[in-house]
Amino acid sequence: MKNKDKDKNKDKIEKEKDEVNVEYNVKKIRKDFNQLKEENIYLDTAATALKPKVVIDAIYEYYNRFNGNSHSKMSIYGDKTSELVENAREIVAKYLSCEKENIIFTKSATESLNTCIFGIEDKIGNNDEILLSILEHHANIVPYQVIAKKKNANIRFVYLNEDYSFNYDEFEQKITKNTKIIGITMQSNVTGEEIDVERICEIVEKRCKELEMHIPYIIIDGSQGITHKKIILKELKNIYAFVFSGHKIYGPQGVRSTIFK
User: Fold this and answer.
1) What is the pLDDT of residue 18?
2) Helix (H, G, I), strand (E, B) or coil at 207
3) How many other β-carbons are positioned within 10 Å of the β-carbon of residue 231?
């Protein structure tokens, strides 16, 4: 039995190696993008990714064959559109290891952040604190400024080390009993600095236990980070919401996701 178990484990490891060592054929991949023909080079994926042929074909097929109002029972097209939307929800849930019921599709990451942030503004009071990193996109700063002005709350920023890396020690120290919201990006779209959100969650939990306080609302902007790192949301304990953009991961414009836990 032990030898059989060893063989099974060996086969599993070899299979995982095969899955990881998939050939990365740049020339073949470039053929999927019509805009990269004639040796064109595109370096603005941080803003929006080019769309591969399979995505463009899927959009074309939808508008030619299935176009209808989702969750409407007035036609077979409405049923089909509903099915496609729910299938997409399941794919996102599987990719991010979360429950599909927690996924909301919006038209932009900005709208997703606004929904998250303004949805909890009643939880903010006089002299409460909102903790942000200095690396945040303005979409993850401006809504907090509006709330802070309205509620007479304070915004505190976590700055960087001399090498421009995120200062985790300062982050921990700036969590106080007045901290009600923590807004944090996974990765800067300016410097490329990646913030370890798993570590962020651990620091918040540890600090809150020390201060004997409830964990603040943690809102993560994953718009840049999701393109570079595998996200397992069920391992991110205590987050309130995770936001990302579909168009930055080769999907169509106008589709973003908010995941509430």
Assistant:
1) 47
2) helix
3) 20
